[in-house]
Amino acid sequence: MSPRAQNTRRFLLLAVVAAIVGLVIGLLIGRFGIRSDNDDYRITGISETFVQDADPTISEEIMDNINSDNIRQYLRELTEYPHLAGTDADYKQAKDLQEFWRSVGLDETFITPYDVLLSYPETKDESKMNRIFVYDSAGQVVWKSALYEPILDPSENKSNVVPPFNAYSAPGDINSTDLVYVNYGRVEDYRWLAQNTDINITGKIVLARYGKIFRGDKARQAEIRGAKGIILYSDPEEYADDSENTDVYPHDWFLPESGTQRGSIYIGIGDPLTPGYPATETAYRLNESDPNTMLPKIPCHPIGYGVAKTLMSYMSGDQVPASWRGGLNITYRFGGPLKQSGWKIRIRISTTNTRRKTYNVFGVIRGSVEPDRYVLLGNHLDAWVFGAIDPSSGTAVMKEVSRVMGNLVRSKKWRPRRTIIFCGWGAEEYMLMGSTEWVEQYVKNLGNRAVAYLNMDMAIEGNYTLRIRATPMMQSVVYDATKKVLNPDNTDTQFKTVYDKWLHAFPNSDKSQPRILGLGTGSDHAAFIQRAGLPSIDFLYTYNWDKYRIASYPLYHSKYETFKAVDEFMDRGFKCHRASGQVWAEVARNLADSLVIPFKIQDYANKLRDGVEELDRNLGSLMRRNGIQTDLLYEATALFAAEVASFQKRVDTVDRKNPFAIRGINDQIMLMERAFIDPEGLPGRPLARHIVFAESSTDSYSSATFPGLVDGMFEI
Ligand SMILES: *[C@@H]1O[C@H](CO)[C@@H](O)[C@H](O)[C@H]1NC(C)=O
Ligand SMILES: *[C@@H]1O[C@H](CO)[C@@H](O)[C@H](O)[C@H]1NC(C)=O
Ligand SMILES: *[C@@H]1O[C@H](CO)[C@@H](O)[C@H](O)[C@H]1NC(C)=O
Ligand SMILES: *[C@@H]1O[C@H](CO)[C@@H](O)[C@H](O)[C@H]1NC(C)=O
Ligand SMILES: *[C@@H]1O[C@H](CO)[C@@H](O)[C@H](O)[C@H]1NC(C)=O
Ligand SMILES: *[C@@H]1O[C@H](CO)[C@@H](O)[C@H](O)[C@H]1NC(C)=O
Ligand SMILES: [Zn+2]
Predict the structure, then answer these.
(1) What is the distance between the alpha carbons of residues 711 and 203, in angstroms, rounded to a whole number?
(2) Which residues line ligand 2 (CB under 6 A)?
(3) Looking at the DSSP assignment, which residues form a beta bridge with residue 206?
(4) How far apart are CA 559 and CA 147, in angstroms?
(5) Which of 287, 399, 487, 708 has the greatest CB tally within 10 Å of its CB?
(6) Residues bordering ligand 7, an ion, CB closer than 5 Å
(7) What is the CA radius of gyration of the chain?
């Protein structure tokens, strides 16, 4: 044994003795240090900071410092060039954001790449580019779709504008003598066709208008019903205030006739080749032709309403009922063989799927007392083109919120109790790639440590009121925040706060509180709620839904979603961007900084009860006719409510000077939502794991309460 080894042994011995002495002292402190007054106990010698509640002045300081001009400037920079996922511009945006976060004083920043299957159209060879044609009986082209959206304002004159396409469309060159109009392409539309007409779409090309449901579900329904291809178009009813004669971009916020909605038609979430596990470089991958990828098998292509009108003029068949008619000044027909005999319609798609890197970027403010508890704020970075609303309005606001919080941390004025993580997601537009892969990789860490995920896809899509999608536990937190934020519309003196306006615009059924919508899988919150069971919320300022009966903000996913459109028509002065940011920041601050996590679990119990009642109202008699009893559901929700009430008593009376008691209660609050995660997933949908709130299986944008039951009944 060398002298050095002997020294080491002596040191080890000393260390063991020291440890034992330390343990004994610790036990003695534990035995005698805990005072017992009236059976109550206190731990002495614990620093006050461990049990201090949030500094009440910080909330206002953060909100006051959020500045509209900064947000406007960030948006201008972010939308200067197209930033499609998987391109150099997309990577640059992630790097720039990382640099920004360093510069505003965040403690740590990092980038995580994933290698995912993306999809791109041919852009160079015009003879291969995606296009739809109509041929006459002599084989001459009588109509074709546009290759590009024309430049309507000089600010759009940029390179790398991807032509309109539907990502993950199957490639193909197909033709048909028949074109059939299927309204929105929903299950109920096909059912109506089958019951009221003798049109059979097998082997035909169908034409569906955008709106009502997720476009991927339209393509999927067409495919499973045997259609050979599908054309999607934006009807003025949904995108131009009901008429092709409306004032449109570049003079107003409505969609011009050439405007075309891009978008993914993949119906899963995350990388199609690595379902359920992270798309790291070395991961096992499915073969693209494996049915488990759920990739579309028929060609699908989007067009604007200008050319759609001409296409419809070639259609034959009976007139459709009123509810199937849109806003074009033309007779809407069911179709069938084209009007002129011998004419044919052809779809040529050369879109290909390809593996590319996408980048998530993170910026961290480390928590002062509980650094291992995370509050996550996320927004995606990738856009179909300029993305001035989707997602860069949200990115601009995230930059401003992180700047304000970073400055407070840097100047040592504030450090949140828990860790705050800002997340910039890659390839959301392709179907939530970056966020889903990250959750798949870190689902266990997140499950054990994350308090909440707060999503902002777009800060605004209008300037009228807030709209919130969230799990029930978020309800009281977001009500509290919105009561602190002034209504950004100062001409609207009737409503003082964001809360007041929101209550007016979206009241719940008894008009006592604003209505909170369920979370679908429309944005990056999906994996957090569905896979990890994190309480989640999605913030957005929206337009007046009673005044505008449109499917979304009209320029959605078109090239015309530009800085100009936002700056001149949608949020002049950027006040609604600011209000969105203030609500987002305040919710984050409250969750990260409060001594006791401010979720109210009673709201969950109420929501479950409402959900059961609604289910009973809608489907109760059908369920009973099929031998399914609802009594057990009522019993279970009543039991849950009773447990919640007794838990709430413990929360209200917890010893606020005891950090262990606080931590225990907080962990129970934090983990509550996880109780609804079934690791096996819903019947037939192993990756949809939340048994109370999941997306509807026929429309991924919407959400159903008790999706397992609703899906089962839908089949019946
Ligand atoms: C776009 O810009 C190029 C030069 O940068 C110019 O030649 C062209 O005329 C512009 N097109 C339009 C429609 O403004
Ligand atoms: C139409 O499609 C069929 C089957 O894909 C193909 O055999 C035929 O050549 C096509 N006809 C035209 C006119 O493109
Ligand atoms: C539709 O047509 C296909 C093939 O032409 C046929 O197999 C199918 O049974 C038809 N469906 C109905 C409902 O008639
Ligand atoms: C994927 O499957 C197709 C069809 O089964 C096959 O031709 C191809 O070789 C497979 N590719 C790989 C990489 O295994
Ligand atoms: C609709 O079209 C008809 C014929 O094409 C035309 O006479 C009429 O003025 C149009 N109506 C509107 C509101 O544009
Ligand atoms: C608010 O949006 C509407 C369209 O919904 C637009 O007409 C109006 O000018 C906008 N107001 C501001 C201040 O941006
Ligand atoms: Zn988005």
Answers:
(1) 28
(2) 174-175, 346
(3) 180, 230
(4) 13
(5) 399
(6) 390-391, 457
(7) 28
